[in-house]
Amino acid sequence: SCRSLEDKKPEWPTDRPVLFRERNGWCPYSERVWLALEVFNVAYDTVLIDNMGEGRPAYFSGSTPKMRWPDGRTQGESMDLVKAVDKAYNTEGVELYPEGVDVDGLVSEFSRCFPSRT
């Protein structure tokens, strides 16, 4: 489910994570966490945060994305969140964050496709 911007701090569920993401869909860091949750069909709530302007709720500090886990912990940094979602909800064997020589080679090859000064 998705909540709108409010100043009053909502009651958080204790049975599922809550993703705090920017409200316009412009943030690639929020997007990667959102997609990780969707890949594993995780039941979660979303709180949309206005990162610019006057719309930021008083109860929220810091930057997005952030996750409030069911145990009450709060965590930030998108790649750390992707890894945590992968660890907690990956029952399919899908690799969201593959590591190793093959991946390093592909990243290096991809980098060479672009001009060096862009």
UniProtKB/TrEMBL annotation:
Pfam families: GST_N_2. It comes from Florenciella parvula. InterPro entries: Glutathione_S-Trfase_N, Thioredoxin-like_sf. This is GST N-terminal domain-containing protein. It comes from the Eukaryota. Residues 26-87 form the GST N-terminal domain.
